[in-house]
Every structure is written in C-alpha cells, then in structure tokens.
Amino acid sequence: MRIELKKRDGLSSLFSVLSPFIALGLTLIAGVILFLFLGKDPVRALYSFFIEPLTEVWSLHELAIKAAPLILIAVGLSVCFRSNNWNIGAEGQFIIGAMAGSILPVLFHGWESPLVLPLMMIFAMIGGAAYAAIPAFLKARLNTNEILTSLMLVYVAQLFLDWTVRGPWRNPEGFNFPETRNFHDYAVLPRIIETGKTHWGFGFALIAALVLWFVMRRTLKGFEITVLGQSARAGRFAGFSDKKMVYFAFLLSGALAGLAGISEVSGSIEQLRPVISPGYGFTAIIVAFLGRLNPLGIVAAGLVLALTYLGGEAAQISIGITDKVTRLFQGLLLFFVLGCDTLIHYRIRLVLGAAQKGSAA
Amino acid sequence: MSGGDVTTETTQRPLLETRGLTKVFGSLRACDGIDLAIAPGEVHALLGENGAGKSTLVKMLFGVLDPSGGEILWKGEPVRIGSPGEARATGVGMVFQHFSLFEALTVAENIALALDGNVPIERISEEARRLSVEYGLPLDPSAHVADLSVGERQRIEIVRALLQNPELIILDEPTSVLTPQEADKLFETLAKLKAEGRSVLYISHRLEEVQRICDRATVLRHGKVTGACDPREETPSSLARMMVGGEVPQISDAGLGEPGEVLVEIKRLSAPSRSPFAVALRDIDLTVRAGEVVAIAGVAGNGQSELFDVLSGEVRVSDPAAVTIRGKEVGRRGITERRLMSCGFVPEERHGHAAVPTMPLTSNLILSRHTSDRETFLSGGPVGLINTGAVARVAKRISEAMDVRKSGEDPAAGSLSGGNLQKFIVGRELDRKPLVLVVNQPTWGVDAGAASRIRQALIDLAKSGSAVVVISQDLDEVFEIANRIAVINEGRLSPPEPARTMTRERIGLLMGGFHDGTGQGHAEAIDAH
Hints:
The structure holds 2 protein chains of 2 kinds. Helices cover 69% and strands 3% of the residues of chain A. By secondary structure, chain A is mainly α. Chain B is α/β, with parallel strands linked by helices. Helix content of chain B is 34%, strand content 22%. Chain B contains 18 helices and 23 strands. In chain B, the strands form 5 sheets. In chain B, strands 13, 16, 19, 20, 21, 22 and 23 form a 7-stranded mixed β-sheet that branches. In chain B, α3 (107-114) crosses α4 and α11 (361-369) crosses α13 (388-402). The radius of gyration of chain B is 23 Å and the shape is globular. Classes of the chains: A mainly alpha, B alpha/beta. The interface between A and B is large, with 24 and 47 residues.
C-alpha cells in the first residue's frame, strides 16, 4: 500500500484564504491534546497561553515589541522566498546587524548626538546586508546551495557575538559580566507613544510591510521578483537577471534583518549580550509562510507568533510548564500551515498494492 | 501505405467506444456528449481546432481526467479508467503533446518510470535502443532529458508508449516536430502496428497526413462531434471546413516587394555549447533584410534554440560584431536593449519561457514589453508603477487582433490551449510592429486555423518592411512563408537559398549535413538507422 499525492484539478480560492486559520485551529486542537497528556487543564492552559497576554495594556505593548522583529524579518524573507531564494540565515543577519549598529554606542560612547541613532540604523542595515551577501555571492558565483550556507553562517554569527561580548566589547565598568556598555540616551530607540513600551521597531515593521506590499503588488520590481521566482527562464526572456535578483533578495532581507536586530538591541535591551534573540530569525520563516508571503498577511502572522512567545512566558508562570512549549507551538503551527497548503494543492490517495505506477502525466 | 484493407473490420465490435462522454470545467463544456468508436486494427484520426476538446477527450481515455458524464467501453465492457496506470494495464498507450518527462533523469530512467515491474535499467536501455532503431526514432538512452530538444523528447514518448505493447496507442500531434523522412518512418511504424492488429488514435492538424494514413476520422468542434468520415474521400479543404466551421483563410504573400536594407546580420558566429548535451554554434553567417522572411529549417536539436538565444540576446557572445542589428553591433547586449531597437522575439517553449503559466495574460504582456512600452505601461519614474488599465487595454487589443479564445477576461496563461496561448504570444510582439522579429517554431502544436493566422501575420509584418526570421521544423510552413530558406544542422547553417529554387529533397539533404561536403560522416550515420 502506498500514499500518493495527486494534484487537484482546480484550486479552491476559499480554502487558500482559510488555510492559515485552519492551521491555527489544528494547532489549538493539538495543544489541547498535549496539555491533557501533561495533566494540565487544557482550557486554563490555552487561556493563559493565548488569551491572558491580550488582556492587559502592558502585555499588548510586549506583543508589539515581540512582533516587530518577526514582521521586519519576515517581509524581507517573503521577497526572498517569492523570488526562489531560500535565505534561512536571517537569525545571523539579525545578530551581525545588531553588532554593526552597536559600533557607535559601544566603541564611540563619548559621541552623543542626534545623528547617532540614524547612523546606527544605517550601519545595522549595511551589516545585515553584507552578511547576507556572503550566501548570495556563493550562490550567484559558485552555485552553492544557499539554504546550507545561510544556515551555517547563523552559528558563526552567534559565536562571534558571544566572543565579542565576552572579549573586546565587554563593559570595562561592568564587573566582568559578559555585556557591553549600556547605550547612552541618544542611542536608544524612542517609544512610539509615551505611555507604553512599544518602540519604533514596530513602526519600522509596519512601514516595511506597507512599502513591500505596494512594491510587490503594483511595481515592475515586484513583478520581476515574482517572475524570476516562478520561472528563471521566462525571467531571462523578460530581460531580468536572476543573478542580480539573488543579490537583491538577499541584501534586502539581510538589511531588514539587520534593522530588526538593532531595533531590538537599541529599543529593548539597550546593550549587547551573548544572546540577543530568542530565535526571531527562524520564527520569521514561520511568520512568512503563515502570512502567505504577503506583507500584510505577515503583519497578522507576526502578531500571532509573537503571542506564542508571550504565552510561553505566561504559561510558565501561571501553570508551571516549561517555556519550550513555545517552540513546540511554533513548530506545530508551521507543520499545519505547510500541511494545509499541500492539501489545498493536492489530494491524498491510498493506493492498494504495488503493481500500479503513478501517473506519469 | 497499404490502405483500405481494414475497413471491413468496422462491422465488428469496437475495441474502444465512448458514449456521451462529457467533461465540464466550471462553465465550459470541454467535451459534450462525445460518441466515438475505434475498431481493432484501424488508424482513427481525431481532428479539431485548438480548444475543440481533443486533448480533454484523450486525457479521459488515458485516465488523466475523470469524465463528468458518459461512459467508456473497452471491448464492449464498460470500464472506469482512473489513472494512466490503469489505462496502461487496460492496454492503452499514449504519447502526449506536452511531454511528461522528468528533466533531471536520463532517457532510460524516464522510460523505466512508466513501466510496471522491476525491469533492470540496462534491459530497458537495450530494449529502448532496439525499438528506437527499429522504428527509426534514434535515441541515446543515457542522455539527460533536460538537454534534449522538443523533437528528441517526443521520440522518448513514442518509444516509451511502444515499449508497453499497447492494444490502442494514442498519438497527440506526433509528427509536428519530425522531418518528412522521420515522419515517413513513423508512418511505417504505424502501419506495422496496424498490421499487428493494434489500433491507433491519431490526433493531428495536418490534413494531408490524416488522409494518407488514417482509415476513419472523427471531427470535433467546440466539444462536440461535428463529423465522422473516411478522410480519403474528403479533400483537405472539406476536412478543414468541418474543423473550423468555415473556410480556412488562404495564406497570401502577394505584395511582398524587393528586400530593402540589411536589418540583421550574423557574421562568423561561433558559440561553445553551454552544457555537455547542448549544441555548439559554428561559423554561422546570415543576413536578413527589411521586407523578407528568412526561414531556418532543420531537425530538432541541431542548434535552433542556441541560435535563437544568441539572436534574442538571452545569451551574449564575446564578439560584439558577431550579431549586428540595424547597423549596430549587439553581440554583447542583452534582450532588453535589443527590444529597445524594435526587435521582437517568440521562443519555442510557451510554458516557462515565452510565458509564465501561473500568471494572467496581462502579466505575461508586461513580461516582454515592460521596457519597450515603458511610457504606456509604467508610471512614477524610477518607482515603476504598473498601469494595470493600460496593460489590460493592450492585452484586450492583442486578444481581439489574434482571436485568442479564453475563459474569462484575464485568465492564467497556463489555462489557455496551446494554440490560443501561442496566438497571444505572437500577437504580443506583432502588436509592437517590430522592425525585426525572430520566431522559433511559430506554429508548433497549433491548429490549422490559428497556424494560418500566425503565418499570415508574419508575412504581413515583412510586407510592412520588417525583417522576419522564422526557425521552423515544419517544411510546409517554411515553404509557405519564406522568401529565403537556410538549414541548420549540428550548429552549422547552410547559406540561405531563394525559396523558389529550393526543393524538399535539397532541404532533406542539407538536414542530413550534406552542405559544403562537411557533414558526410553524419549523413552516413543517419543512413545507418
């Protein structure tokens, strides 16, 4: 007996829209089963995981802060994925961007000026883009698989940050803690509204999402991205360069990941530490797909995934389960999203016996 | 061909019969109550324009599509053919018009995938080699499909179907990529199959061919059977009338004046092959003047796509002077710059080269004209905003000018039938009134009505003072439209000769590599088959 995937004749537009919601529903059902086996009351657990964080103003701000890097990275990745470039290394570009952006407040901490913050943002974008340029160069020039190279560079970036923070950039007045100096006031990203903690990182995310949504939908550049993603040959016929697109997609997503990195460091942490990200760069991949690679969908998806981070913390406190449940929920969600998408395009057929060969057509 | 000796068998029980077979896609009745009967040992023609429902019908017979209504009877028994595997088990073999091959695999591996049971790949290679030689369809079983031309890919399909020893073999436009000699060999194959008592369902637009080899014909139009006849008792024009429901417009080349200035010049063009299986271009010289159609004939896989890529600028050559367009050396310039010099290009492969099948027609219009029609299609300067209104208007104009039949206002390119998509792709370039047009296989897999429209449009373009290069394997087409004819063989191009003095025999010799005494060895190799 064998399971076959058979392409459906028509594509249901209703289910294409519903798919992310079905995936969310299935994730919740899986969550119920999970909590039952853990011996917890599933209703209470799901409440504290998914509802409680939404009931207070301060935690809504937390949600926006967590969603900001996810959205910023994911909209960049959506351009990559749409153009058939598989940048899996946004986590590394996030870190290198954060480090490049921190050069001014850490090494030149005496220079306090309104110019510092914009320069930090620019340095961070250049840093993230430059780091993403490595897998882009390897792919465009040597035809190396970018999934592997970009992923491996994440670990290089993580260890480089760790070494830098424990070594050359360690705060000389910090009692040997592995941290850099605290950023001075000119190097801290301001809040959007005075009453809450949400900083401009969330603003950047929304602006980036709107701009890229417009670019993808209405401009020739967006068209070029889509065409090259669908068929490189047709793209060449249109006069588009697939090599240049590799650089464009990687540099853009690298720059946005770098901006996310410095926004997180400058807006929330206000110094560099050995670990500055709970895996935003990887979670953003889930966000990009849950948002159907559409920048506006990604805003919504970013908020949902941010909720899993908050819910994990909340559930740890209120019902005493490990915050690893967060990653578990993220994994479940990606699994169900991809599963739903596959089942929209294909139907499953059980084939009895091995004599028949699959359709060659 | 030994014809007429099987007609007596029509009285006996049909091998395959359909009763009221219907397939509905949304609101479109692609097949509407088709009655068809194929007798054992007969070659049965299925005629019809693009979109008439031929492909849909055979896909149902081969289990690719589920019928919406009606029934299929095999030797008098109702059967349900749920998959190509079941079709093969029943005894139906199929050669598709759009090939179903895995590009990354070799010829032998592709054949193995379609066979039942665990036959060692060496045995398959051996068998395929034997069959391909026996039936005059030369194939290298170890070649990768990605590197093969359309014509060679079709040979794989034919050999693959033959390997399965079917009782009914369905051929969808099998000769459209074959030379006359190869087609003759295929007809011998069909005669052999018929003599063995097998039936053939033969789909073709080539009416002469149908008349020559088919015992009976069923004609479809708009999803319905509009006629059943003995093609030998009909004339090509009476068959065409049944197909299109009216007279096929005759191609007219009246008014084609003396050629003018040189618009395209290729000088000593050589280009190394880009993959182990691609063809290297060697010392090609060609001059095309305003107001003429130059046709390049040749068997698939002799450097046609490579030459097209160099002409279009998708592949640049190191010597800028190797390609000159309108007096400017453009060897190192890309396709966009050449389009800005009023050049238009139509590649051979519709899906994934000339058009992106998943994108709507309007997007596919932007594909080739985003820079040449920048002022109309784009606004906002460097931002490059797409004016969807202007694009839609031009797309509509093209569809009307070329009579593109489609479902809905702006359907995905992949949802159009091959001929209708081709009309759109050719119309997309003609709409610009280019000074230079290069077309690779303009009417491959296109029905008679659409093909004559496309050919007439190419001639009209030349008449209006443009230079037209047509790369084609269809000799009828070459003779119909060309002022001068050159032949490409193993990456070399014969000097173009006036169409008036060119003969089919001479083209056949040039295809075999007989020009300038350079290709003797190859010609012998062909004879050896």
